[in-house]
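QA checklist item 7 of 12: single-chain prediction sanity check.
[x] sequence parsed
[x] length recorded as 131
[x] structure emitted
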Amino acid sequence: MFKAIKDWNVERGLIEYSPRLEFRLLMEELLESALMTNAKEYAVYFTGNISDSLDAIPVHKTSGSIADAYGDIIFVAVGSLWKLGYDPSIVLQNVIDANNNKGNKKDPDGKIIKEEGFDHPEHDNAKTENK
């Protein structure tokens, strides 16, 4: 599964780490999740106070600390999917399958642009007994 994600990036020429692009993609997905839940008010509050929040985080600018942050993001995301009653492995496979249909066009930052007719993945097949 993780190899499929790596291959997807390689096939689209997304092989260099770009802090700007990675942050943009993560923020886009976080804000999307907030807008679809009752966390919208918190997202607005948080983004409005982001400089204060960032000042409170200790900064260790090493590739290991960046890897730790991304690892924590995966850890939280997997836990969130489980709490929502979804099997994270199936959700991730659904996302991989849908992303494979996006194409290769990029915006100026390097983000893959969804082609017309792109269908977001359905996750009914990922529901578990948890919820």
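[x] summary fact logged: The chain has one domain: 2-126.
[ ] second reviewer sign-off
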